[in-house]
UniProtKB/TrEMBL annotation:
Pfam families: NB-ARC, TIR, WHD_ROQ1. Gene3D superfamilies: Helical domain of apoptotic protease-activating factors, P-loop containing nucleotide triphosphate hydrolases, Ribonuclease Inhibitor, Toll/interleukin-1 receptor homology (TIR) domain. PROSITE patterns: LRR (PS51450), TIR (PS50104). PANTHER family: ADP-RIBOSYL CYCLASE_CYCLIC ADP-RIBOSE HYDROLASE, LEUCINE-RICH REPEAT-CONTAINING PROTEIN. Residues 19-188 form the TIR domain. Signal peptide: none annotated. This is TMV resistance protein. One of its GO terms (biological process) is defense response. GO terms for molecular function: ADP binding. The keyword Hydrolase does not apply. It comes from Phaseolus angularis.
Length: 1183
């Protein structure tokens, strides 16, 4: 018999019991049917509980026993009604015995009711219960099996009678029923009936979630809930569905449909009459003033358990329905367990009124949106063939908005493909009036200033970072700190990941409102956001007096515009253009401009008469400009100047007037030789990048720039030294000198410098590090990779107590380094120590000149003690000893308890020490270990780091207009095991390699659940390449093809990850000696692709023909693609110019939470070998 643990195993197990009923009632029909039990069943029904009743649910002519058994096993609560003749029915006794057998299962309960019988008689089988058992024992005294059954019946009666229940002898029929139903409610929670309308797509889950919110706290309190969301999102539909499902549980129910209209027609008195008419079940005309209404409402609703819904509340005063200052009177007069729901598009109204909780109604999920659209557009549940692309366009634009989906779907029903194309082309230009009219209600309720904010965001500020939106709107005079919150409260925009986001339909609304001023003449608009409209304005050479903003991203068509037309835009405040060709010359720009962003600016200078005294941000990246202007300009408001990649720029202008300049980018201005000295006088300057200024030979004196935090001088290849004043900029946090190939020395650093990152990678002529580096007490990153002339590090490096990353790779002449030989002081005991250096092969070869005696303590005791001093080197996180010709790896590596990544490729050892105790190790690479015969024991537990991404570089893009991702400082590697081209590996070790890889993958999958999913990079968290030609048993979906196709979308399922396995062969193409490009695995989600790269060198593949690639993606990664209309191929291995990839077999499995239980892992992995038991033991320890 299988164990209970295995019986409960997988979520897909067919043996799991389906709970068909909430309650099973065991009773003797002739005693209680048509009286007590009828009252009980009705009370349970009113509360929404599904109770089994034999004469209602059993079909005539069928055997009762199997039906009863199935009903009992499918119930969660058992109510046993003991009556005078209960024991006379063997059916009742069999039911009871089976109930007692099942009640040990979790989540089941027995509630006994003693109806006109003494509990003691039931317990002892005396009184009414004595005679039936005497007769039974007399009848079956010759049948031992039946006598055993009778004994079980006795035990069942005793067991149940000993439970706490209800004794209702000599009491009214309805006695105790309310308490019994309340007890059922306490156990199962509140229920609601099925939805009133089966056509409400996606509503059932939302109603359940809202019901959980309503009943999440004690039902004894009167609670007030607010429901909010944008117009048409389904607020009323959701609450109406919930109301109809739970209203039977309340003594008084009232749904007031349109409070705003009622209040507008007859003020507070009208709302009172609505409440009273519901309480009287008739029209209430007799009240003539609010005071009388207040009294009557108090009198009629006092202490009643009520469900009241107030829909479409538009103002706070509409909730003041009582005389005096008595806003909470309705809450105060209602009985325990009452609920008041207020629906409003304005969250601020709900907050002011003092609701207990606010629920924001969200758009439909993609699957639900498709279903709803298909019902209206095709009268079916799927998209018709030939319409897929157009349907997806509509769904993308509707963005889950149910009202819009219904309207658009209905308008397209019955049309041919060509008619659809025509209709969609029209809708792109002229939005649906029904949708726009609905959404416009919220817009019209805004005051003038907030309307302007709404229009700015809908036309061009959608997707920008909040701080930059606030800055631009402040310049526009729109008070954004208040206005943005108003729009958020009214569900007109949201803040997501620090950016302002607006629904596409609301963007349509805003753009339609701007256009409606003059549909055919964009020169009369206040805002322009498309090149097509801009072309009209510039070509007709007429004044554009109302135009304040021109923000056009990328042109969808190639066009040439006339520059002369800008002379007609006298009031232009915002101008953003990208890579557009212009004819003529630019002689005029308005002095009202505050933001000028013109990427690919095609002219050699700005207009001479341009007076930029209001300019806040000037961005001319990738321009043809040679010189901004000749004389000084009034730049008192300028905060940002971006001239990056302006390769013709030869001179930086005098910026002495730019006293508020904070941000300066001259990145890749390759002809600049010197920087104007005025830059060193700008006290508010905090960011300067001169990256890629290849001709720069001299830096200015930074004597006044004491607020400078970031200085990026990467690839300034002619720079031989940096000005000493840089070492005295107290607030400097980041200094990037990467690939300054001619840099020979560093400045002296002052004592109180705040420098955190110093990047000297590729400074090939740098011969020494200034000893004053010990003053950098806050330095966390020191990158010296590729400093080939660096001979030694100063002892002062020992004082860098905050250092967490030290890269010395490719420092080929470095011959002396001393790491800490004693523990740090108590204040830094939890910080990573200097021993966290990434020690690469070049420096290892320099230190260990004799690989044969590498770990001989007598011969090389100094070198090894400096490399692995105890206890400090135990903090190392990454160790790369690849291609060091090592014959042996010391056992001490097994004691590096902080080690996360270990690369031992290209060495000549035959075995490795035990790695079982390295609980933080998640990456082990063993490529080209030609003598390796035996694999090490892998960690018994695995803990992934809480943050996978390392510290990023600061952004080098203009913050006001460009939002490029940051580039990482350190390489991010996948977890997993790689064993490639190890020809001596014995066959049994190859089999163990597969088993260990799968076991380690499960451990890492368990470990990843303990960390923040947002910190995980968008590539496989686990990626292993090992020799093998069989798909492990774990992968239960197999395909003999070049890709793995998921049978159904995992969206909405409670899975943890999708694990994949691919068997492939890498074959070299003729004439190719080696390959430098690794194969890639691509995951495809319709038109969206992610690349999953296993960084493996397959250049020498003569030893093993087949490889296994094993990987998994966690569910959070799938969520990024849930907007894709369909779910398609997930894995596709491809080759490149150097070799072919031949995929032989693929497999996958969706891993659920229950799958990670030990008993279920045993079943999935298969077998009972001692090695497997050891792997399972390790997995269990890891949980």
């Amino acid at each position: 018999m299988p164990s209970k643990a295995i019986m409960k195993c997988s979520s897909s197990s067919s043996s799991q019991v389906t709970r068909t009923y909430d309650v099973f009632v065991s009773f003797r029909g002739e005693d209680t049917r048509n009286n007590f039990t009828d009252f009980l069943f009705e009370a349970l029904r009113r509360k929404g509980f599904h109770a089994f009743k034999d004469d209602a649910d059993l079909k005539k002519g069928e055997s009762i026993a199997p039906e009863l058994q199935q009903a009992i096993e499918g119930s969660r609560i058992f109510i046993v009604v003991f009556s005078k003749n209960y024991a006379s029915s063997t059916w009742c006794l069999r039911e009871l015995a089976h109930i007692c057998y099942l009640v040990e299962a979790p989540g089941t309960h027995i509630l006994p009711i003693f109806y006109d019988v003494d509990p003691s008689d039931v317990r002892k089988q005396s009184g009414y219960f004595e005679k039936p058992f005497v007769e039974l024992e007399e009848r079956f005294r010759e049948d031992n099996e039946r006598m055993d059954e009778v004994q079980r019946w006795r035990e069942a009666l005793t067991q149940v009678a000993n439970l706490s229940g209800w004794d209702i002898r000599n009491k009214p029929q309805y006695a105790g029923i309310e308490e019994i139903v309340q007890r059922v409610t306490d156990i199962l929670g509140h229920k609601f009936s099925s939805l009133p309308n089966d056509n409400l797509v996606g509503m059932e889950f939302r109603v359940e979630e809202l019901a959980k919110l309503l009943y999440s706290e004690s039902s004894n309190d009167v609670r007030v809930f607010g429901i909010t969301g944008m117009d048409g999102i389904g607020k009323t539909t959701l609450v109406r569905a919930l109301y109809e499902g739970i209203s039977h549980q309340y003594d008084f129910t009232c749904y007031i449909d349109d409070v705003n209209q009622i209040y507008g027609d007859s003020s507070t008195l009208g709302v009172q009459k609505q409440l009273l008419s519901h309480s009287l079940n008739e029209k209430c005309e007799e009240i003539c003033n609010v005071s009388q209404g207040t009294y009557l409402i108090w009198k009629r609703l006092q202490r009643k358990k009520a469900l009241i819904v107030l829909d479409n509340v538009d103002k706070v005063e509409q909730l003041k329905i009582f005389t005096g200052n008595r806003d909470t009177m309705l809450r105060d007069c209602l009985g325990r367990g009452s609920i008041i729901i207020i629906i409003s598009r304005d969250e601020q109204i709900l907050r002011i009124h003092g609701v207990d909780e606010v629920h924001q109604v969200q758009p439909l999920e993609n699957k639900e949106a498709v279903q709803l659209f298909c019902r209206h557009a095709f009268k079916a549940n799927v998209i018709m063939n030939g319409y897929e692309k157009m349907a997806n366009e509509v769904l993308w634009h509707a963005q889950g908005h149910p009202f819009a989906i219904e309207i658009l779907g209905s308008s397209l029903f019955g049309l041919s493909v060509s008619q659809w194309r025509s209709a969609l082309a029209m809708l792109r230009e002229n939005k649906s009036k029904k949708i726009m009219d609905l959404l416009r209600i919220s817009f019209e309720a805004l005051d003038y200033t907030n309307k302007q904010i709404f229009l700015d965001i809908s036309c061009f500020l959608h997707g920008y970072e909040v701080e930059h939106v606030v800055e631009i709107l402040n310049f526009r005079g729109f008070y954004p700190e208040y206005g943005l919150q108003v729009l958020i409260n009214k569900s007109l925009l949201i803040v997501e990941d620090g950016r302002i986001k607006m629904h596409r339909l609301l963007m349509d609304l805003g753009q339609s409102i701007v256009r409606e001023v003059s549909p055919k003449e964009p020169r009369n608009w206040s805002r322009v956001w498309s090149y097509k409209d801009l072309q009209k304005i510039l070509s007709n050479n007429k004044p554009a007096e109302n135009l304040e903003s021109v923000v056009c991203e990328f042109a969808l068509f190639k066009t040439t515009l006339s520059a002369d037309g800008f002379s007609n835009m006298r009031h232009l405040k915002l101008l953003k253009l990208n890579y557009v060709e212009f004819s003529g010359s630019l002689d005029y720009l308005p002095s009202e401009l505050g933001y000028l962003c013109w990427h690919g600016y095609p002219f050699k200078s700005l207009p001479p008469r341009f007076l930029p005294y209001k300019l806040v941000s000037l961005s001319l990246a990738n321009s043809k400009i040679k010189q901004l202007w000749e004389d000084t300009k009034p730049l008192h408001n300028l905060k940002r100047l971006d001239l990056s990649s302006s390769e013709d720029l030869i001179k930086v202008p005098d910026l002495g007037e730019a006293i508020n300049l904070e941000w300066l980018s001259l990145k890749s201005c390759t002809k600049i030789r010197e920087i104007h000295p005025s830059i060193g006088l700008l006290r508010k300057l905090s960011y300067v990048t001169l990256e890629g200024c290849k001709s720069l030979i001299k830096l200015p004196h930074f004597e006044e720039t004491q607020n400078l935090e970031i200085l990026d001088l990467e690839r300034c290849i002619k720079l031989e030294k940096i000005h000493p004043s840089i070492g005295f900029i107290r607030k400097l946090k980041f200094l990037n000198l990467k690939n300054c190939e001619n840099l020979t020395m560093l400045p002296h650093f002052r004592e109180d410098l705040n420098l955190e990152i110093l990047n000297l990678e590729g400074c090939r002529k740098l011969g020494q590090i200034n000893p004053s580096i010990h003053h950098l007490k806050k330095l966390t990153v020191l990158n010296l990779k590729g400093c080939k002339r660096l001979v030694s590090l100063p002892n002062s490096i020992l004082c860098l107590n905050s250092l967490s990353y030290l890269n010395l790779s490719a420092c080929s002449n470095l011959s002396y380094i001393q790491l800490l030989e004693k523990p740090r002081d108590e204040g830094h005991s939890k910080r990573p120590c200097v021993g966290e250096a990434s020690l690469r092969s070049s420096i290892m070869k320099r230190w260990f000149k004799s690989p044969l005696h590498l770990f001989n303590s007598r011969t090389h005791k100094d070198s090894f003690s400096h490399l692995l001093p105890s206890p400090n080197f135990s903090c190392i996180r990454e160790l790369d000893l690849s291609f060091c010709a090592l014959l042996q790896i010391p056992d001490v590596i097994g004691n590096l308890h902080s080690l996360e990544r270990l690369n031992l490729s290209g060495n000549s050892f035959c075995k490795l020490p035990n790695l079982k105790e390295l609980s933080k190790l998640y990456r082990l690479v063993l490529r080209h270990c030609r003598q390796l015969k035996y694999l090490p024991e892998l960690p018994s537990q695995t803990y992934l780091p809480s943050v996978i991404y390392e510290r990023p570089w600061p952004t080098t893009e203009s913050p006001a207009w460009a939002n490029a991702p940051q580039k990482p400082l350190l390489h991010v590697t996948n977890s997993g095991l790689e064993v490639l081209n190890c020809p001596e590996l014995v066959e049994i070790e190859r089999e163990r390699c597969t088993r260990m890889t799968v076991s380690w993958m499960i451990q890492i999958l368990q470990a990843q659940r303990r960390i923040d999913p947002l910190s995980i990079p968008m590539n496989p968290l686990f990626s292993s390449v090992i020799p093998g030609s069989e798909i492990p048993r774990l992968f239960n979906h197999l395909e003999y093809s070049t890709l793995t196709r998921i049978d159904e979308s995992p969206f909405g399922h409670d899975y943890e990850a999708a694990v994949f396995c691919v068997i492939f062969e890498a074959r070299f193409k003729k004439g190719i000696v080696s390959s430098i490009c690794p194969p890639k695995a691509k995951g495809k989600f319709n038109d969206s692709k992610i690349s999953m790269v296993f960084d493996s060198d397959l250049a020498i593949a003569e030893y093993v023909s087949d490889y296994l690639w094993i990987s998994f993606l966690i569910k959070e990664e799938f969520i990024h693609y849930q907007d894709a209309p369909l779910y398609d191929e997930i894995v596709d291995l491809v080759g490149n110019d150097h070799y072919d990839i031949d995929v032989k077999k693929c497999g996958y499995r969706l891993i659920y939470d229950l799958d990670l239980e030990l008993s279920n892992l045993a079943m999935m992995l298969g077998g009972n070998s001692p090695a497997l038991k050891n792997d399972l033991s390790a997995i269990e320890d890891n949980k």
